[in-house]
Structures
1.
Amino acid sequence: MERPSLEFNLPDTHEGGKLYVVDSLNNLNKLNVCPAESQRSLDEEENTGGTGESMAGNNTRNQFLFFVTFILTLTISLALVSFVIFLIFQTRNEVDQISSRLLSEKKNIEELKKLNNIILKHLNQSRIME
């Protein structure tokens, strides 16, 4: 049995070596220039063939998530503001009702005071006459 050859059939092995050195230098430069977090995205870009398909997909997905979150936040905010305005109107109506009741009760109390004074005067006069 023959052993498979580990050598690649390149037209010029010297040219292949140059490409390997340049690629290694590029990788080393990426490690030195880029922080650890962005190295992950560079690795993903290399895995996709350098076309940026993964980055474009992530960017579109992130924009979609941001848009959905933004719309959801606006909807919830609008609902909360509407509820607060409704509560303000309800409270205002109840305060108006209570104040009108208080005014009517104040009038009733003043009338009762007048009647009480009249009764007291009448009783005082009747005692004097007796």
2.
Amino acid sequence: SQYHKLFKDIPTEESVLKVCSCALQRDILIQGRLYISPNWLCFYANLFGKDIKVVIPVVSVQLIKKHKTARLLPNGLAITTNASRKYIFVSLISRDSVYDVLRRVCTHLQVSSKKSLSLKELTEEPDAVSL
């Protein structure tokens, strides 16, 4: 219910699959929570009394890549959308379990390496149109 109080535009029938504590990497790290549902990735934080919300439709996700914080700690995920926006979530306690949930939710992506998911390639030629 807290999910729907925070994100009023998300339909009430949308159920949360996973909630995890993490930080959004910007100029500073913004500590908050990532909510994963079948159609939305939502991040919420309250920084100095100001609400910070990021809402990413699952269908807009083009790439999910495992990320190392400071090139050392394997605790982050980088998510790129079709609008070329990149979000880096770090300080994930269990990055691999979050990655697995995202892999199940983002069915339009395929495993492209051990560390990333990307858009599926077209497997068949589009039908030719005769003139």
